[in-house]
Amino acid sequence: MGLEVKEKNNHWIVEKKYENGWASNQSIEEGNIVEFVDGKKTEEHSTVKRFNRVEMANSITIMDNKLKVHKFNISYGYMDPNFMFYLLFPMLFITVTILLSIFLYLKTRNNQSSTILIYFLLSIGICYLGASMSARGDLIGRLSTIITLPSSIILFTHFLKSYFKKYDLVFIQTKSLLRLYILYTIFLLTIAGNHLFYIINNFIIEFKLLYFSLLLSYLLFYIFSFYVKHKDSEGSTVIKILGMIIFLSFSPFVFFYAIPTIFLKNEFFPAEVTAIFLILIPIALVYLQLSEKLFDIEFFLNRLRYYSLISVPFTFLVVIILSFILNFKLLSSLTVMAFITLSICTTLFLYVKEYIDYKLRHHLFSPKGNFETSVYTFFQKSMYETKVSSLITNLKNEIKDVLVVKEVFYIEVIEGEDEENWGIKNRNNFPALIIEDVERIKWNHCSIGTLIQVMDRFAIVIGGDQSRKNIILFGMKKSKTNLNIQERIWLETLAYFSSILLENFQLIEDLFEKIKNYKEKMEIKNNSYPLWLSKLMFSLSEKERTNLSIDLHDSVLQDQLQLLRDIESITEQVTDSSIKNDLFILKERMLDNIHLVRETCNELRPPFLNELGVVQSIHNLIEQTKLRCTFLLISELDPSIQKLDKEVELTLYRVIQELLNNAMKHSLASKVEVSLRKNNQVLSLAYDDNGKGIDMAELDDSFNTMGIFGMKARVKNGGGTIEINSSQGQGMHVYIEFKEVHGVKKN
Q: Where are the transmembrane segments (predicted)?
């Protein structure tokens, strides 16, 4: 009925009429006296006694302000617009939650988070259904709402705790969750006591709404703090989605009903209107529970902000026009419903339009205007180019073909010494009119992708820095029309991509030029390669070693291990002793091959060099060498040496590895000594063997092998010095020294 009454001077006065109630359409005014309800005194009616509201009555007798008595017979047999709020929406909502709960139970019945989610869905469904009954003054509806509204928040918190376990994240501590259940129990006992003694009043209603608002604020605070703490974790997207859904679902109820009722004693919109948004919760939660791939929430939110910015002004204007045409109140629940419905429909339409544009993009635009294909074609043409001139030629041709323009120029402008005027490089290559127009512009304010009009031409920046700009200048289209939005976006996209290619091509050309200049110098004067080139070569070498080691380990080694397991399995099934013996020999050969592959992987990539440190890694290398070598290997490694610079560590390891390999393969030595010492900030490595030695004058420095040159280059790159002494029959003596080495512990 929607009629709130208040006792005053032994009379029950109409205090308020609810907009969606039966009384809103009757000639009943605030301040009228309610004489009888169902032929009995007003105070004897159950809903008046409990809730100070006239509900579930068949007749009501009213005395108006002119002291005239009117009797109203109330019929519930017709369908009015309130039918949607009080019956249709609640029934649809509870049906959806029940169906989703059954679906969840059948799909994931043994999942704890799914079980809690089912409880939550049923709780929120009963809450919505009970709210419509409570609005009619039904005691069962009022009690079910009191029980399920706050419990839904607690159950949802419990669900989040269980759900995030699969991401190894703790949403809320068990003790905190237990406190929520205890406070909820105290809340129910307080409400039950008031119901038993008929002390229900506005204070209790405000108490319930305040308790729910605090619970919701507590949950949103936990979600926000949880996201801040784990925003880089795997479950960050889920946190965003949940926070957004909870806020959108409950905020209308809190901001438009609960808070105004608590502080202003009058709601902005009825609870049954704001509760419609609860339908978002079951849909979103079931999606999260069942989906393996989540939608991009960042993309969704950015699009939502953009589409809302477009739809809200349009919707607001339409609602104002409709209010004048249909003659309904501008500030009413009907207006709000129309505004919300139109906003949602407009936003959804924009989402659908974007999807349709994507699907039909090949049919909506002609091949000449298919700018996405043009960008793709440009990339295909530029894929195998290495020169800046070729890139610029492709770019000019693409602009000329797509926009159908006659002239396209590539211009480089340079900032003058006064930092205000700009000049064109190679001025003789361009007409005087173009030079005058281009140099008039302040290019220091133009970034990459900036498109500006230069008299009757257009210019777009495709590269450069603060003092230099690379520009493409082109004339008007043959149709003499201005550039449309799609053409501008296409040009900006092409400029951004071209800037990346242009910068890389310029770096490649600079590198080639440096190598060429160095080669010319080497022809004049025999000298060592520059330090930067050596570092580049060794960096590439180490990268290839690592890649090869990973490939060997993940492919060849794993295949060998699988073959070994197959041989062992076959051996167990064979009874013939001769075949078993052959399989045993084959197994031993497989083990040797596996060991060889592992050793090769270890040589290509030093195992645990960063984890164990250089001393322990070299010690392991020496111990492995002792198992294979035929000479006496004596080592002295200073244990006080701590973690060094990575480049120095790798240099020491590689040099010792190369020296020991040469000793085993070529030196014919009977004794080898290796020592690694430190003295203050100086690190020294000494190597001596009594092998056949080598003629230093016959060494051929080359990039193709490690050799003597490789060791020299590595040590030089690491900032050290190396001295090698050897001659035929006198063995080899190597001394390496690194000064000002950091990471060496002092005595």
A: 83-104, 116-133, 139-160, 181-204, 210-229, 241-263, 269-288, 309-328, 334-352
* Mean pLDDT taken over the chain: 78
Report the distance separating Cα 116 and Cα 101, nearest Å: 10
Closest CA to 229 of 172, 156, 159: 172
Other C-beta atoms within 10 Å of 575: how many? 6
Measured from the Cβ of residue 125, the count of other Cβ atoms closer than 10 Å reads: 24
Q: What is the DSSP code (8-state) at residue 445? A: G
Residue 452: enclosing H or E segment and its boundaries? strand 451-454
Q: Tell me the average pLDDT across 122-143.
A: 75
What's the predicted TM-score (pTM) here?
A: 0.44
Sign of CA dihedral 685, 686, 691, 692: positive
Half-sphere exposure for 479 (CA within 13 Å, toward CB): 7
DSSP assignment, residue 383?
Answer: T
Residue 530: DSSP 8-state: P
What is the separation, in whole angstroms, between the first and last Cα of the chain?
92
Cβ contacts of 391 within 8 Å, gap of 6 or more = 382, 385, 498, 501, 502, 505
Structure confidence at residue 286 as a pLDDT band (50, 70, 90):
low
Residues in Cβ contact with 742 at an 8 Å cutoff, skipping those fewer than 6 apart: 644, 645, 681
Between the alpha carbon of residue 232 and those of residues 161, 241, 293, the distances in Å are 18, 15, 18
Compute the distance between CA of residue 398 and CA of residue 501 in angstroms, rounded to an integer.
15
pLDDT tens-place string over residues 703-746: 333 467 778 878 887 788 989 888 888 889 999 998 866 554 43
Q: Are 15 and 4 in contact (CB under 8 A)?
A: yes
For residue 676, name the pLDDT band (cuts at 50, 70, 90).
Answer: very high
Torsional sign, CA 199, 205, 208, 211: negative
Could you give the CA distance from residue 177 to residue 116 in angstroms, rounded to a whole number? 14
